[in-house]
Every structure is written in structure tokens, then in C-alpha cells.
Design a protein that fits this description.
Elements: H1 2-31, E1 39-53, E2 58-62, E3 65-73, H2 75-85, E4 89-99, E5 105-116, E6 129-130, E7 133-134, E8 153-157, E9 162-174, E10 177-191, H3 204-209, E11 214-225, E12 232-244, H4 246-249, E13 256-266, H5 268-320, H6 325-335
Antiparallel strand pairs: 1-2, 1-3, 1-13, 3-4, 4-5, 5-6, 6-7, 8-9, 9-10, 10-11, 11-12, 12-13
Helix pairs in contact: 1-5
Length: 336
């Protein structure tokens, strides 16, 4: 019986030992990925802020600017791209909708972001765009890779349509969670006008070509990123936009007219929701990547040790009674 049990335990030990690396290096890359149908909404606010009054063409202080960012997975387009790309692809259709304190639209910029579901590397395909302009992203946007490393990354800036380093500053603790803190500063850069303007009937292309006024932008971008999931648990921007020169800004000091200036932060209820969601997903990712493989490896080692112990006991018993005399002596006593 001991020998039979030791063989069963040995088989289980081999199974666990084989399953541990299989889960870590085969199942984890296939199961830990962004779902193509994901929908996410985040509300950010700048309190207070400076906003251009298009009626008087004068910047004024306002109590609050609200930015609603939505990400919606485009499942149909994902499947189309996957057929030619040969890998799991996610297509996010995003919209950044900015409203003033009166609830009226200030700007609205759509994006289509196409990326690898597991690595978050950009996938270049038809339809990749910002505000209708075709782009070719390099680096990450919105989300960092699973198991983010403490180093600089390229981060795509939608306003400039270019990628620039986002610098790893160091570890931080945010709401009890160990995170990595990143910063990116985009210097003053000339950027396109949004195609959807707050005043109906204005052609953005005509503002620069006919009026000679250009739009400039700078920002300091900050992210607190969970290194396991690569998801930011908090994000902030110190954001400034100006109109320069031409008919619109020609009479302003230095011919620079502030369009928007404010410190944009996630609204508190969305911060709490994001932290809870990331903490839940963090446990799932760690289970696939670390806990389950390590547990299987330890279980395999324990089963192997137990199998060897049972086998050693069985052999010791056979060596102490090679002819089975104890058994026969017992039989003789019973028959007597």
C-alpha cells in the first residue's frame, strides 16, 4: 500500500511541477489581458481655473472646469484587426469632453487607440487617430504594461501627436497601495486647433490660415501607477493653453491669450473607484503570475518529499523482514 501511495504522490508531484511553469509562461500571457469590450469613464476637475471667454476674448477665472474622459472598447474593429495581426488586439474609442462652469462645451477631442491586449504595445492599423488626424503612436497611452518596471517609458501625447519620455521618479504609497510615480513635462509646443470649437460655425483651419493665430500648449503630467497591473490609480495635469499672434491675440500682452489654465485632478469618487478596481485586478494578475505557480511548485516539492518518505519506509520494512517471517509467524499463532 505504501508503494502504491508513493507512486500516486510522485505522479501528482510531477503534475504540479509541470503545471507551475506552464501557468507562469504560457497561461499568464494568454489570460492576463485587457478585455476588448471594456468601458471606462473618468471625471477630472480643475478648481479653480482660467478659461477664455470667447464673447469678450478675455481670460477669466472660473470656479471649475470639468473633463469627462470615456474609453469604449470597439469589439468589431478589434476582431477585424486581430485577423491580420495574428494577436489579441484592443481598440479603444476615447473621447475627452471639456465643459465650463455653465455646462457648455469648451472642447471635444476623440481618439482611437489600438494596442496589444497583453503587452499594451501600439498596433498600427487603419483608423488610429486623434481628432480625425491619422497618427502613429509609439510607447504607451492611458495604461502602462503589466508589471511596469521602475524606468522611463515613451508616452504618447494626444495634443502634440508625438511621443516623449515619461520619467520614473520613484516609489510612492497612494491610499495604502505601493505604486510607481511618473512625470512628463511637455514644453510649449504649437498644436492644432480642435475640430469641434465652442462657437458654432468657426472653422478651426481658418483661425490660423486667415487670422494668423496659432494655438500653443504645455503640460506637466503625473501618474501614480500600480506596477502589477500597469493601471494608473491616480492622474493629474498642470495644463495651460494659449492663443498667440494674429487677429485674436494681437492685442493681448505679448500677443499671448490664455485659453485654459488649471491643475486638473481626478474627482474623489472616481479615485476611490479606481483604487478599488485596480486592487481587485491586482489580486487576479498576481494569482496567475505568482501565487498559483509558486503554490504549485511548493505543492509539487511537498508531494515529492512525501512520496520519497513513504518509499523509504516501504523499503526499510522489506529490508527488516525480507522473507515475510512476521506475517507467517502471526498466521501460525492464529491457526494454533
Amino acid at each position: 500500500m505504501r508503494r502504491r501511495a508513493s507512486l500516486v504522490l510522485l505522479a501528482l508531484a510531477v503534475f504540479c511541477a509541470a503545471l507551475a511553469p506552464l501557468m507562469r509562461w504560457y497561461l499568464f500571457p494568454r489570460l492576463a489581458k485587457i478585455p476588448p469590450s471594456q468601458y471606462q469613464e473618468v471625471v477630472l476637475e480643475a478648481e479653480p481655473a482660467t478659461l477664455l471667454d470667447y464673447g469678450t476674448l478675455q481670460p477669466k477665472k472660473v470656479p471649475k472646469i470639468t473633463i469627462v474622459q470615456t474609453l469604449k472598447g470597439n469589439v468589431e474593429r478589434s476582431r477585424e484587426i486581430e485577423a491580420s495581426a495574428g494577436r489579441d488586439v484592443v481598440v479603444w474609442d476615447s473621447l475627452s469632453h471639456v465643459v465650463g462652469p455653465d455646462g457648455k462645451m469648451v472642447s471635444q477631442i476623440p481618439e482611437r487607440y489600438i494596442f496589444d491586449a497583453h503587452t499594451q504595445d501600439p498596433v498600427h492599423a487603419t483608423g488610429e487617430m486623434v481628432d480625425g488626424d491619422p497618427v502613429r503612436r509609439e510607447g504607451v497611452e492611458f495604461k502602462f504594461p503589466f508589471f511596469t518596471e521602475p524606468r522611463d517609458y515613451l508616452y504618447f501625447d494626444a495634443q502634440t501627436r508625438t511621443s516623449a519620455p515619461i520619467h520614473y521618479v520613484g516609489p510612492r504609497t497612494f491610499r495604502g497601495m505601493d505604486v510607481y510615480y511618473f512625470e512628463q513635462t511637455i514644453p510649449w509646443t504649437k498644436v492644432p486647433f480642435p475640430k469641434k470649437m465652442p462657437i458654432p460655425g468657426i472653422d478651426p483651419a481658418a483661425i490660423e490660415s486667415a487670422m494668423g493665430t496659432s494655438r500653443w500648449y504645455t503640460t506637466k503630467r503625473m501618474f501614480w501607477v500600480d506596477p502589477v497591473t500597469g493601471a494608473p490609480v491616480n492622474g493629474e495635469e498642470v495644463h495651460t493653453e494659449e492663443l498667440r499672434g494674429g487677429q485674436l491675440a494681437g492685442n493681448a500682452p505679448d500677443q499671448r491669450l490664455v485659453v485654459f489654465d488649471g491643475h486638473v485632478k481626478m474627482r474623489e469618487d472616481y479615485v476611490r473607484h479606481t483604487v478599488d478596481l485596480v486592487a481587485e485586478n491586482r489580486t487576479m494578475v498576481l494569482t496567475l503570475h505568482t501565487y498559483a505557480p509558486a503554490g504549485l511548485a511548493l505543492a509539487g516539492a511537498g508531494l515529492l518529499a512525501l512520496a520519497l518518505w513513504l518509499e523509504a519506509r516501504a523499503r526499510r520494512g522489506r529490508s527488516e523482514d525480507p522473507a515475510g517471517t512476521h506475517g507467517r509467524a502471526g498466521e501460525g499463532l492464529v491457526s494454533a
